[in-house]
Amino acid sequence: MSDDLTVDTIRKLQDAIESNALPKHTVQLLRVSLSQAETAKAAGHDQEALTIASQALQTAENASGGQ
Question: How far apart (Å, rounded) are the C-alpha atoms in residues 44 and 67?
Answer without folding.
Answer: 36
